[in-house]
């Protein structure tokens, strides 16, 4: 496995690989790898000749109230995990390498941002798509891998690739779950025992909502109320939001039809958990 710190060397390496006919699978991360990242890497390893991983904590996507300096970092651990899971190249640039001077051009997201988690993080996704535009040009992958757990980010990335005609296939990878259905997250360790026992109700409520939709319910407000009732009945968590939109356009629906996302966020004492289901109504 090779670690590359400069844009020039990374581009040259990727151009050389593609010139020999190798397919490139790419997983962009901010490091501090967890099981969700490793699932993306494993999927990329299955489908490509070469797997590239980037580790870059992007300052553009941190808001004024978010502490960039406190973002966890452990490159030695990340490197060992990446090598164990078959990564061929880690692109590991510094902030100075990625942004040597203030940008004269940035990318702004005009749609899909004012709902779900994006509603409380104005400007966040502008930073995400700006750095991804740079990274896609640097890495030049055939496929890029994103988890469906962060469904809003996935929808925005799909919009970026489609709007700007990047020759990249975006591959969604299903959420990794515990045996009881709880979506795996680094935040789960912050749940106290009682909360950990209650937390599976998030996924349980999503599955139950899908069932009543499949049985014929088409009123989004009734489905939302149904989910809220289950969560309040079976947990002490405080509901941040339960929302239903078309997917990937993230538009409100008066009647449930087509491809939709049911998404929720629930706050426990020391952890805010998110989850979602994306499916097509037959």
UniProtKB/TrEMBL annotation:
Pathway involvement?
A: Cofactor biosynthesis; (R)-pantothenate biosynthesis; (R)-pantothenate from (R)-pantoate and beta-alanine: step 1/1
Top class in the EC scheme: ligase
* Primary location recorded for the protein, binned into one broad class: cytoplasm
Q: Binding of (R)-pantoate: at which residues?
A: 61, 153
InterPro entries cross-referenced by the UniProt entry: Cyt_trans-like, Pantoate_ligase, Pantoate_ligase_C, Rossmann-like_a/b/a_fold
Entry keywords, A to Z = ATP-binding, Cytoplasm, Ligase, Nucleotide-binding, Pantothenate biosynthesis
Residues where ATP binds: 30-37, 147-150, 176, 184-187
GO terms (molecular function) for this protein are: ATP binding; pantoate-beta-alanine ligase activity
Q: Which GO terms describe its cellular component?
A: cytosol
A GO BP annotation: pantothenate biosynthetic process
Q: Which reaction does it catalyse?
A: (R)-pantoate + beta-alanine + ATP = (R)-pantothenate + AMP + diphosphate + H(+)
Coiled coil as a keyword? no
Superkingdom of source: Bacteria
Q: Where does beta-alanine bind?
A: 61
Is Repeat among this UniProt entry's keywords? no
Q: What is its EC number?
A: 6.3.2.1
Q: Which PANTHER family match?
A: CYTIDYLATE KINASE/PANTOATE-BETA-ALANINE LIGASE, PANTOATE--BETA-ALANINE LIGASE
Protein purpose: Catalyzes the condensation of pantoate with beta-alanine in an ATP-dependent reaction via a pantoyl-adenylate intermediate.
Write out the similarity annotation: Belongs to the pantothenate synthetase family.
Assembly state and interactors? Answer: Homodimer.
The protein in question is named: Pantothenate synthetase
Lineage runs: Bacteria, Bacillati, Bacillota, Bacilli, Bacillales
């Amino acid at each position: 496995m090779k670690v590359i710190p400069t844009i020039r060397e990374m581009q040259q390496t990727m151009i050389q690989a593609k010139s020999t006919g190798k397919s490139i699978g790419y997983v962009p991360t901010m490091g501090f790898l967890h099981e969700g990242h490793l699932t993306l890497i494993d999927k990329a390893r299955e489908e490509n000749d070469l797997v590239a991983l980037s580790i870059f904590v992007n300052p553009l996507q941190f808001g004024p109230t978010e502490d960039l300096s406190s973002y966890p970092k452990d490159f030695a651990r990340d490197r060992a995990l990446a090598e164990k899971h078959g990564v061929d190249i880690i692109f590991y640039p510094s902030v100075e390498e990625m942004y040597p001077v203030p940008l004269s051009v940035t990318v702004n997201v005009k749609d899909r941002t004012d709902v779900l988690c994006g509603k409380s993080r104005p400007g966040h996704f502008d930073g995400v798509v700006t750095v991804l535009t740079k990274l896609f040009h640097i890495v030049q992958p055939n496929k890029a891998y994103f988890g469906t757990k962060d469904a809003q980010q996935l929808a925005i990335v799909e919009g970026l690739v489609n709007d700007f005609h990047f020759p990249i296939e975006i591959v969604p990878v299903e959420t990794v779950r515990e045996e009881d259905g709880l979506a795996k997250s680094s935040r789960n360790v912050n749940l106290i025992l009682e909360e950990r026992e209650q937390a599976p109700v998030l996924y349980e409520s999503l599955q139950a909502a899908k069932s009543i939709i499949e049985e014929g319910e088409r009123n989004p407000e009734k489905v939302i109320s149904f989910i809220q009732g289950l969560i309040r009945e079976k947990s002490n968590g405080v509901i941040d939001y339960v929302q239903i939109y078309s997917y990937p356009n993230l538009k409100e629906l008066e009647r449930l039809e087509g491809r939709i996302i049911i998404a929720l966020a629930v706050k426990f004492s020391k952890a805010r958990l998110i989850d979602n289901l994306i499916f097509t109504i037959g």
